[in-house]
């Protein structure tokens, strides 16, 4: 389920190296629900 994926993703994206250097996601989000979850958690593409 999307909430499990987002929990794991949040743990990774909040690590220092991702915070300092940024991150790239390939083939994610896969659907509108995942995109909305990312947005609600403060992870916005730039």
UniProtKB/TrEMBL annotation:
* Keyword annotations: Kinase, Transferase
Would you say which domain of life the source belongs to?
Eukaryota
One of the entry's Gene Ontology molecular-function terms is:
kinase activity
What is the protein name given in its UniProt record?
Adenylate kinase 8
- Protein species of origin: Tursiops truncatus
What is this organism's lineage? Eukaryota, Metazoa, Chordata, Craniata, Vertebrata
Recorded name of the encoding gene: AK8
């Amino acid at each position: 389920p999307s909430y499990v994926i987002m929990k794991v993703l949040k743990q990774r994206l909040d690590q220092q190296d991702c915070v300092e250097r940024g991150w790239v996601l390939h083939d994610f989000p896969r659907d509108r629900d995942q995109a909305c979850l990312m947005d609600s958690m403060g992870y916005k593409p730039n």
